[in-house]
Amino acid sequence: MKKEIYVSWCKGLADSEEALKILRESPYVTGVETLNYDRDEKKFQKAGLKVSIHNPTRFLNIDLSDSEFIDVITSKENSHMLNGIRTENAYTAGFHICHKIYFKEGKLVLKDEIDEKSITIHDEEVVFNNILNNLLQIEKLINKGFPEDKKKKVLFETNTFYDPKILEKRDYKSEKEKLTVELVKYFSSLEFYKKILNHPKIHNENFGLLFDVAHVIATASTNVLSKIYKGTQDDFINELINISKGRVYQLHLNAPKGNLKTGIIDGHKSFTLDEPKTELILGYAKEILNQNPNLTTVTLEMYTNQEPVKHAQILAEQAELVAKKLDIEVEK
Prior knowledge:
- By secondary structure, the chain is an alpha/beta fold.
- It is built from 13 helices and twelve strands.
- Strands 3-2-1-12-9-8-7-4 form an eight-stranded parallel sheet. A two-stranded antiparallel ribbon has the order 5-6. It has a two-stranded antiparallel ribbon with strand order 10-11.
- Helix 1 links the parallel strand 1 and strand 2.
- Helix 9 (190-197) runs parallel beside helix 11 (233-243).
- The model is unreliable at 101-110 and 112-119 (pLDDT under 50).
């Protein structure tokens, strides 16, 4: 079965003919994954590239765990988000869960420290029900009127458990930060994935998991260093691969920052051939592909911090590396 390989968006990419030509002519690149925040999807499609829209509410600091998620994504001012997902080319639509903490210059900050909005810390059951209900509602909205063979898989993405006590060697700044970290810890846990993937309301082929391998490695690292998880990092990751067997329809791939001794954090770095973290990530990716024959979509979620042409050159090379290492036949 062929797989689609999407590469990350960068500012100015949709308006650079040279960059778009590089991606279009690569036999290893299907298209571009974007938030659709700048409404660039039509430009990419006009240039002969497919489009995957991922987590379009990110810059609104809203995700599946928020009770107002559906109201926000269906509002008049955000109608391009839902319409974009319905007209994108990818077979999947992925969203974040419980992303109540964000990273700024490598440090943890709470959502309200960024946008000056307060957040309410709910108990786990309230947040779980928000995620479940939002998944059910957004799937209906995305797939409304589509024949069965055209319906998209609606996915939630593996979360990152970031604990400043472990990764920044500091105490919590406030009770709110402590409660937020505790909440994210649960929604990154094996217990959570077992519970939601086996929930009867979404235990069907319309729903599944977007497996971000770097997120899971970072979470496993934090769990092991904090002694929350008694096994090894490898044990944790293999448990999740087994829990999600047959339910993963999309991969996010990139190289993380850090090391096993001091902790790993999400880094969105490019791969380096024969570098240990590259081999680690791609090794897990190969196993996930083997366990999930219906997985359709692979995204290289890499931030190059380069201008569009250089960005396109780097990611075309990365797509070739990944396709060859994982034996992927790419669908254009």
